[in-house]
Structures are given as structure tokens and as C-alpha cells.
Amino acid sequence: MAQLAEIYACVPSTERGRGILISGDPKSNAILYCNGRSVIIRYLDRPLEASIYGEHAYQVTVARFSPNGEWIASADTSGTVRIWGRYNDFVLKNEFKVLSGRIDDLQWSPDGMRIVASGDGKGKSLVRAFMWDSGSTVGEFDGHSRRALSCAFKPTRPFRIVTCGEDFLVNFYEGPPFKFKLSHRKHANFVNCIRYSPDGNKFISVSSDKKGFIYDGKTGEVIGELVMENGHTGSIYAVSWSPDSKQVLTVSADKSAKIWEIAEDGNGRVKKTLACPGSGGVDDMLVGCLWQNDHLVVISLGGTINIFSASDLDKLPISFSGHMKSVTGLAVFQQSSQKFILSSSYDGVIVRWVQGIGYNGRLNRKEISQIKCFAVVEEELVTSGFDNKVRRTPLIGDQCGETEVIDVGAQPKDLNLTPNMPEFALISIESGVVMIQGSKVTSTINLGFLVTASAISPDGREAIVGGQDGKLHIYSVKGDMLVEETVLEKHRGAITVICYSPDSSMIASTDVNREAVVWDRISKEVKLKNMLYHTARINCLAWSPDSRMVATGSLDTCVIIYDVEKPASSRITIKGAHLGGVNGVAFVDTRSVVSSGEDACVRVWRILEQ
Questions:
Q1: Which DSSP string corresponds to 417-482?
Q2: Distance of alpha carbon 298 from alpha carbon 33, whole angstroms
Q3: Strand pairing partners for 494?
Q4: Which of 417, 442, 440, 444 is nearest to 431 (CA)?
Q5: How confident is the model over 568-582, as pLDDT tens digits?
Q6: Which of 20, 141, 203, 512 is least enclosed by beta carbons within 10 angstroms?
Q7: Each residue of 469-487: pLDDT tens digit?
Q8: pLDDT at residue 124 tops 70
Q9: Quick one: residue 420, left, alpha or beta (phi over 0 = left, psi -120 to 50 = alpha)?
């Protein structure tokens, strides 16, 4: 048995030039956001706890809690809305095809009976309101000619719906059944977000023209605006009201968040400007916000979540981040008696995690390059991407030193380091292997077959190269030469991963034909066979520190842990470990396995005694 101990969740998907809409449940202090096909439920006071819903077939754009907090409605780029239970395995209540294009925003009515959704579509169908149980339409929403970016439901009776969009319009509808009442064209650019105050007396719209207007909640008339003095100097992407309906929080492309005091006359003045920590680059633009209880949640384009305290605005925010794209590499390393988990995603972001604490910062490299393979040894990080280069970066505390770039002449397939010889690296390329000593290529060896994976023994004296033909070629390392010793044959597909056990007594290998094999290194005989329990290609492999267990991760979303002293049938299977497939697996200690995958999350599993 293996039990989920911790989850290091992904951050929201962001897009330059667009705001993102996050929502929350004040009763449980939970927030909802989307990444890829997943909806993530996180708790502001418990960052290591997260639940992830992954049943959408297309990219999810927005998700919202129902007023009672029991149900969640989430929408995707195909125009589908799914309504599902927050507890008990996310049971699906209903699924409706609401619009013909992407849905950008949706909102529940205060009684939880109706839902309004806005977005893109064909013809006039850019906004639609429907009953949550039957899907029947409640009203006609004319008035928009281009994508409707945001919508809001008046939280008190009489019900009203307001919408805004790329046609610079703010539309007001009365109902139910809802029908068009009036329209405003006060803004001179896309209107990005519209929100009703919790008491229902006012609503506010914010736009890329750096302005915000405040309207009467019942009649829809303009009553005031956000005064430009000390205001935003970039597009305003999102707005959120305080629980007492007297203040609003806005975020902008000018990298600042501002709290505005809304006076009785309807005008808003800046009360406080919140500065988020960051390097000042494009990734620090702010694209999403939420005011929930005492928490002010602000999200940057790079995915960093900053949480300010509304009762103490001078206090530094709590910041946590993670990956936005699929996590391709995973490593566990020790630095001054503390163990760290390093994960790298395909977009070049490397994040440090500490078990029991979670997010521990990003490793900021001077040059951000895409990462395909990565390895850590002796305070040094070695990475390769989708070009012909290998990069060696020293780790100095929690920072990266000056990167050395080595051109190996072809795209690296695999890279291997050994703790006993930290300067030495074995890089496999399609035609053979490249040996590197420090920052110099010492030899390039053409092996005469198509190479897919490689490994080097902990003492650096032996190398194994796996081929497209499913054979394992074992070589002894003599200086900068390889001398072939023997060939192991059992696999029926191209080799994907090869790994020596920490005590050097065994070798584990996996292939695209979903099989893993454990070999005895001395006798070259198969030690553990019939490891055929995955249903798709195996992507990653790891040994436990005591050389007793092997963990494999596959495209079939599962992680399987084998005990080499027991038959393969007594395996431990973790089903659905990562939506879309598992890309990385590593042991933190003899009873803890960490995995990463396409869903941009990192999970720690505890192996229970059987």
C-alpha cells in the first residue's frame, strides 16, 4: 500500500495580455484555479493540502464554488460546463454544452439554482444563463458583438446579470427570465472583469484602458469611477470586492495591486498600493486577484501566488509557487544535512521543495533554457534541453552560479553523472556517446546503433548504453574510450531508462513496450522478471537508497513499486498518480517516493508496511 502524504500543486495557467479569474469559498478558506485540464482546490491556511479534479476533456478556463460550497461548476475551451460534487470522489451532477466556443467566466446565482456563463461563440450566443439541474435556458442575452470576457450575478434580489467584453461594452440584464435592459460604452479598450459587491448595491468594471467604473447594482446606471490619481499605469486585469463591500482590490500589468476605498458617492480612491516581491521582469505582471476573509490573494503572470493580510497591509506577503507546465525531471539531493527535492519543468523552471514544508523557492538561472534531462551531483546541476548543448551550473546555497555551456554536437538523449567523479559526465546522443570532463568534450564515440538511454556505474568504471533494438550494451570505461564487454538481451522494445542500484549490485532497465527488468550485475542474469504491469511506455525509474525497491512511472498515469526480494506480482501500484502520465520518480528515503508528471504537480507517497 502507498498513501499520498503531500502534494505540491501546480500554479494557475496564465496568458500574457489576459487576466485569470480565481474564486473561493470563504467558509472553508479554499480557492479554486485551473491549469491545463485540471481544476485545483487549495486551502490558504494549509498550502500542502490540495485536491485536483481532472475529468475535463479540454483545457479548463474557470471554476466556481456554489453558494453553499458543496458543488463546483467548471468550464472549458469547448464551451462545456461540468457541475460536480466537492466531496466524495467528485461525483458528476451534470454536464452541459453551453456555448459553441471557449467559456471565459461563469457565476452562480445566490440561491444556487442558476448559472450564467460568458465567452466566445458563433453568432449571438456569447452569454447564456441556465438552470443548474436541467440546463434549460433562462433568458435572452443580446447586445455583445465580440467575446464576452466576464459576467456577474447580483447576489441579492431582485436578480440582475451584468456582462462585459472585447467590444468595450458593459451590458445590464433584468430577470429572470433575463432580457437586455441597457448598455454602457464608457471604456476605450477590452473590459476584462466585472464584479458585484457582496451586498448587491454596486458593481464595478475594469478595463485595459486603465480605468474602472462603478455602477448602481439595481438600475445599472454609472455612479462613479476609480480616480486616476495614484492609479494604475497599465491594463487592469481583475477586481475583487472586500467582504464589507466598501473596498476593492485590483491588479494590473504595471506589476502592482491596489486597494481602493469606495466612497458613498461611488468614486474610488487608492488607499494602499501593494508591491509583490519579484525581479521586476515580465513574469511579475499581476493577472488575478481574490479578496477572501482576511486574505488578499494576488497572482502573477509567472504563476507566483502572493497572500497579503487585509488587517495588516504592511506585513510581507506569504509567497508560494510551483510549475505551470509538465514536470520533466526530478532529483533528490542533500545540502548541508537537509534533503531537498528539485523538480524541473519543460519551460526551464526549476523549483526546490522541502518535505513537510513544501515550496522552498525557485532556482534562478541567468539563462532560462528548456530542460529535457537534468541531474544533480555534489552541489552541481547539469541540464540538457532541445538544442545540442549541455549546461553545468554550480549550486551556491539557494542560488545558481555562472553556467558553463558545452556543445556536444547533437541533441542529448540522456545524461549521467557519478558521485565519485563529479567532473565526469556521460552524455548519450542518437549515434553514440559523448564524454565530458569538466567543461571540455574529451571524446565522441560512434557506437554503430541508435542510442536511446545510458547509465554509468557509481564508481565510474562501467557504462551501459541502451538501443532502439532493445539491447543493453555493457562497456568498461578506459580513460576516454569504451570497450564493449557484453550485450544483454530480454527487452522487446526500445530502452527508455537504465539505472544502477545505489550499492552497485544490480541494474534496472525499462522499455517502450511497458516492461521493466532487474539484472544481477555480476552474473548478468535476470534477478526480477515479469515486471509487465504497466499498460503503456515506461518513462522513469528509481532505486530506493537501500537498493531494496524499484519504482517505475509510466505514460499510463501509474507508479508501480517493486520489492526485488519478492516476486513482481506482490507489487504496490499507485493508480492515476498524475493526469496525462508520470515523467519523473525518485526516492526521498526508504519509505517515501516522490513523483512528477504531465499535470505539473509533484506528489510524495508514503509506502506502508505490507
A1: E-TT-TTEEEEEETTEEEEEETTEEEEEEE-SS-EEEEEE-TTSSEEEEEETTSEEEEEEEETTEE
A2: 12
A3: none
A4: 444
A5: 999 999 999 999 999
A6: 512
A7: 999 999 999 988 999 999 9
A8: no
A9: alpha
The answer to whether 354 and 342 are in contact (CB under 8 A) is: no
**Rounded Cα–Cα distance for residues 293 and 399 (Å):** 35
Contact predicate 380/424, CB 8 Å: no
Q: In angstroms, rounded to a whole number, what is the distance separating the alpha carbons of residues 268 and 258?
A: 11
Measured CA angle at 82 (ends 79, 83), to 5 deg: 145
Cα atoms found within 13 Å of the Cα of residue 93, Cβ hemisphere only: 19
**Residue 27: other Cβ atoms inside 10 A:** 10
Look up residue 255 and give its three cell numbers: 506589476
Please say whether the beta carbons of 275 and 259 come within 8 A: no
Q: How far is CA 172 from the centre of its chain?
A: 36
Name the band, by pLDDT with cuts 50, 70 and 90, for residue 333.
confident
The verdict on pTM exceeding 0.70 is yes
Yes or no: say if 471 and 491 are a contact pair by the CB < 8 Å rule. Answer: yes
Q: Return the ∠ at Cα 527 (arms to 522 and 529), rounded to 5°.
A: 145
Burial class (CB in 10 A: 0-12, 13-18, 19+), 279: exposed
How far is 295 from 314, CA to CA, in rounded Å?
A: 13
Other beta carbons less than 10 A from residue 568's beta carbon: 18
Cα distance between residue 510 and residue 499, in whole Å = 9
User: Using the 8-state DSSP alphabet, how is residue 530 labeled?
Assistant: E
* CA nearest to 414, candidates 425, 424, 403, 429: 429
Question: Distance of CA 281 to CAs 322, 514, 596, Å?
Answer: 18, 43, 28
- For residue 184, give Cα distances in angstroms to 27, 208, 533: 35, 16, 61
- The answer to whether the CB of 266 falls within 8 A of the CB of 244 is no
- CA dihedral (25, 30, 33, 37) in degrees, to 10, reads -110
With the CA atoms of 203, 205, 206 and 211 taken in that order, what torsion angle do they form, in degrees rounded to the nearest 10?
-90
